[in-house]
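yo

u said u wanted the structure for the complex thing, so here. seqs first:
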Amino acid sequence: MRKRNNEIMRTDELIHRLSNQAGIKTHAAMSFGRTVWASLTLSTVAALLIVIGVSGLRPDLPTMLTAWPFQFKAAAMILLAGGGVILVRAAGTPGMATSPLALLPGVLFLLAGALFDRSGIPPLGVRQLSAPICVGVIVAAALPGLIIIQAGLRRGIPTRLAAAGAISGVLSGSLAALAYTVACVNDGAMFVAIWYVVAISITTAIGAFTGRYVLAW
Amino acid sequence: MHKQESTWANAMRKERVGDRFAYEHFLQELAAYLRRVIRYRLHHAGLNSVEAEDVVQDVLIAVHSRRDQWDHGRPLLPWLNAIARYKIIDTARRLRKEAHGRVDLDDEQWSSLPAFNQRDPEESGIDVERLISELPPGQQSVVRAIGVNGASPSEAATELGMKEGAVRVAFHRALKRLIAATKGSVNDA
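structre next:
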């Protein structure tokens, strides 16, 4: 019989202690799945408050709600956010296969819109500062959501921290961009495809950076 | 490993209803599996067997503390492997950082080391040169470069054609050996 080292014997003792806890029910307040949905709801609400507080609703919102430019923006952001939710669930579940293809529907939709954009609105927007304001407000509106979603991810078991952080940036960014559609007066698909994506890329990068620290366990 | 998946998954399910013998058996098998994986993966990171066992224990604790979060409808092995992978990388990074820090001694700590005590090398009866020459060649050149010639770890790395991390690890190990050797010499004298 092979002699067991001291350190292996300590592991044996650890295993014995752990097995004494077999069957103990841990009282998880909320499952990870429900936590994700709660996080995204809170993130959207927070983003809306910031968008309305900083930019205000667009004056023609009631009429625009039924117009294609608004619906295009909202649909694109919903598609991206939907992909983000799938990816966040996978990021918090060890061993769950995840693929950036979940974002493809949203990306393709944006691309198609941009390619067939007949609005004539220049890529830099209707006003001089349209682009930086759009990017700035979306990123600012996404920050509380980023914190909320990363806090929610800690309820799961994130095993690839930078990737999980980046994914939380994608989700919080697309939810903030969705919120921004109620304020955004730039109705060109090309503008949206460029600048909303720029903003979401920024929140993705921020998320990847903070994820390494916030998601560690 | 179809059989391992079903055996282990059964044990995890039995744990939820309080079967501590099935669970303990599973943990033992998991520990043996982890030990092989970790020794293979961290061999080049220079971890000794005590540190490797620390990683095994970290993974066991991680699996145990999250055991209620495994979805019984999903395969267990990918779940275990993902957690193990995370903890292995995390613990290895922490151990490397600790070794990294330990190499940077300040002047006071330097002079307190018996082997490098400049004040009375004759009286202590310790032949520093002899002890250094008894080190393995890699550690020898690192100790001479840093300890005797006073090079910084990055200078030594350039001089010896090694990576700075490898220099620090080698220096740390050489110090341990020298300190152990000098303690032995002091006791003999």
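The longest helix of chain B spans residues 76-103. The mean pLDDT of chain B is 79.
cya
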